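Please go through the sequence line and token line underneath and see whether the fold suits the sequence. See right below:
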Amino acid sequence: MTDPTIGFIGLGLMGHGMAKNIVEKGYPLRVMAHRKREAVDDLIGRGAVEVSTPREMAEACDIVFLCVTGSPQVEATLRGDTGLLSALRPGAVIVDCSTSDPVSTLTLAEETKAAGGHFADAPLSRTPKEAWAGTLDAMVGADPEVFDRIRPVIETWAGVIVHLGPTGLGHKMKLINNFIGMGYAALYAEALAIARKSGLTAQQVDSVIRPGRLSNGFYETFMKWTLEQDENAHRFSISNAHKDMAYLANLAVSVGAVNPMQSAVKNAFAAMDAAGEADRYVPMLADFIARVNGLPKFD
């Protein structure tokens, strides 16, 4: 049986590694020009073929993966005269690996169905390091038969794959996942500020938390910036954190959930975003909270 032709749109920090693993596992791959040529040129060197528009990709591909910023970018990629839906192959699958608004996801699923295709959501967890290694986590929303078709391709870049149920559940779970992570970040940043104003150092806090039951993987990557100034420890931007918490707020409203903690977490990232630091990474929230508390930066 011939392998399906795969398309990939969104060759950023995560997408580059994911696409690299797809083509290296032998799948025919189409990629679309990115604002930075390095990723495209690297993938072409590995055997991928470049296309110019989503329409051109849809004409050539059986499964198209998207890994872009969020729902506005996903919607723009699907719709319009040059969008994926304008030339979708019968039965083709679009897989959104972005962190997107579930309300938009369900709307796009209906539009894709009307165009003769299928829409699945498979957002990610972990970092660009795992994307390159092919060991990301994927939380998937898709009909069972669609999941069976896309799973072998997802296995090229994911070590843990959880099929949660129908389309939309992947993005809902991703927002819950990110709420927990960004909640940790806001909590750690504020706790460190209170500790330092109380006469404790970050190193002293770490000496108690790290060996105890309150430590976890997120804590360890967060503290690599605080203690070691390793800016590559968790390369997830403040703007993306703010965006995801705004999506979660929409989800909470849509299901009628009371969410006081989520509002506080979102506001921490909103404040840093508004201060012109949108492109900094999540662990650097500790610097921002320190600064507004009149404390010097970590060193």
Notes: Strands lie at 6-9, 29-32, 49-51, 63-66, 93-96, 118-121, 124-125, 136-141, 158-165.
